[in-house]
Design goal:
This protein is elongated. The chain has 210 residues and is an alpha+beta fold. Helix content is 38%, strand content 24%. The strands form 3 sheets. Strands 1, 2, 3, 6, 7, 8 and 9 form a 7-stranded antiparallel β-sheet that branches. Strands 4-5 form a two-stranded antiparallel sheet.
């Protein structure tokens, strides 16, 4: 399957309202999966441009940021708040240089984001939400739907706590994923037995009319 995504120059990238490009290839980020920003100490506030809405006044800042994080981003994979490990080749390919504009302050920011999952699924959404919560991010971005999914809330003192809706959704997804994994390991006989027991319980609860 061919990849027709354009390679974005620093100037093109700097003028995006929001989005990302792969650090390794420079290609525009894929329109699927969940994008999770890394440790909030890493994003760099560059300031907004009055001339270009959502863009940066100095394209050189984009280049400077890319050079500063290129090696680190390809080699390090966060595993929680202030924790990391070496990235696998697949993970390295999903490391992105991100750009976004804060709608309230109108300031433009650069960050490092990891793309989780290739399509919308319970497993990839669960991983995205989990990473967002553990890495103290306020939200993650669902590229497929274009939605911003809140993962933490921040009080006036800057303390971040998991968003209740995100936690509830994550717990539900983890339960569903665990049940699916358990079913895949069941033998055919065990699955048939479970089916018969389920049907018997249904018939007991809702007896047929004679």
């Amino acid at each position: 399957m061919s990849d027709n995504r354009p390679v974005l120059s620093d100037a093109q990238f700097a003028n995006l309202l929001g989005g990302s490009r792969e650090i390794a290839t420079g290609k525009q980020g894929k329109g699927s999966g969940y994008y999770v920003s890394r440790d909030p100490r890493m994003p760099v506030e560059m300031g907004g441009s009055k001339e270009t809405v959502g863009g940066l006044a100095d394209v050189g800042k984009v280049r400077e940021h890319l050079e500063a994080i290129k090696g680190k981003a390809e080699k390090v994979m966060p595993t929680g708040w202030m924790r990391a490990r070496s990235a696998t080749p697949t993970e390295s390919a999903n490391v992105h240089q991100g750009i976004w504009q804060d709608e309230e302050s109108k300031k433009t920011y650069l960050d490092v984001s990891d793309r989780v999952g290739g399509r919308a699924s319970r497993k990839s959404l669960a991983e995205g939400l989990s990473r967002g919560i553990e890495q103290k991010q306020l939200a993650i971005y669902a590229a497929g739907s274009g939605r911003v999914l809140p993962t933490n809330t921040e009080d006036k003192f800057g303390t971040k706590t998991p968003n209740p809706a995100a936690e509830m959704t994550l717990n539900y997804l983890n339960k569903q994923n665990a049940e699916s994994a358990a079913r895949r390991k069941m033998s055919r006989g065990a699955k048939m037995k479970e089916k018969k027991e389920t049907l018997a319980a249904f018939d007991t609860a809702f007896p047929r009319k004679k």
